[in-house]
Amino acid sequence: MNQGTLDRTRFERIEAYVLGSMSVDEHALFEQELASDPALKAEMELQRENTLTIELGGMDRLLKSVSTEQRANGADLRTQGAGWKSYLKYAAIVAIVLSGAFWVMTRPTTNERLFAQHFEADPGLPVAMGSTTNLAFSDAMVAYKLGDYQEARDKWSILLKADPANDTLRYYIGSAALAMDDADAAIPFLERVAADPGSAFHDKAMWYLFLAYVQQGELAKAKALPLDNDTAYGERARAIKAELE
Amino acid sequence: MERIKDTYLVSEPSWLVGLRRNDPATIRSLYTHHFPTVRQYVLQNSGTTNDAQDIFQEAITVLWMNVKEGRFNTGADSDPGGFLFRVAKNKWLDTVRSAAHKHMKVVHDDRISAVGYDVDDDTEDRIVRLRGVYDKLDDKCKQVLDQYYFERKDLATIAESMGVEEESIRTIKYRCMMKLRAFRKTIAGEENNEAV
Question: Whole-number mean pLDDT of chain B?
Fold first, then answer.
């Protein structure tokens, strides 16, 4: 087995062979290479095994799902007697009453509603394979893009300790915290970036800081932010302020 | 452009082609047609419906693995029902013979003695080993790799469903597969050390 690294181009070529997505000509050429290159052959066999491993995981998941479906659609329901449907309407009534009571007790405040209505998490930065110089940052960005905000915060927080002036890290830690509905934690990070007009993230930080203040009910601070004339966010900021009046 | 995967034999039974492609409809069809026989056998032999389902899932997995690796002889066994029953029956007998079930009584079934158990234990050992490797992956890797290699979705579709760029999915896929590769190299190294 090849003990070194496997670059992505070579990996994807082997992958195309294993998945049968090569053209006939590419396939024939690759088979010639396999015949004369034992390292390539070993790598291909390893990748075939790994692909089978993933497929087995998928098959286990699918079988569980089909088994559950069969159980739900099959004899289990039929053996529960003919009268079970009559109980459904009572269950539905109880559920409606309970959910209504729950909504009254837990309905969001105006601030929370406005925040939920206008907040959309920053989509993050593109992650490219070329960025090997900043692999740790990219790893965290991948987690962020997949919605694993806590993982992203943890990884970026480690990087921030080594580079405390980094506005990109501060902005995205704040963004991840806000996406987790943790405005309290997001505010100090966003305040630092919003106070730096030279930062590439200044305007966005200002907008998310505004939303964080709204969510926290710190309306005086929200209104004091100079967002009204901002090209990207001014209109939405004014609309929110009008609703808060 | 002609692709290699388009050149599969068209004369193969549809269930076999479907299994090779991890087709959910094929799995559902196998379940619907062949599970009742297995359930009846397990229920007759002190088992429950849940036991039967566990056993049947394992039997389908063994069948799937054999198909994937080209070891299923369609000439001699074009009906998967017989194969599934034999595997399920033998797995249940193993369970019955275990200490926890030693007081169970096994009902004779002509289908059992008429056909031998033609699944070698290597397949089942292999399934256990592969599951052990799969469990090393984190959930994020499983999510992406499962969609790409098992469900055979393209990168753009996965990216859209997860709300990220296609390039990010491509990167995640590569890195996760490299984790799996590194793990296998570790195992191979340990085995070599034991052999020395």
Answer: 82
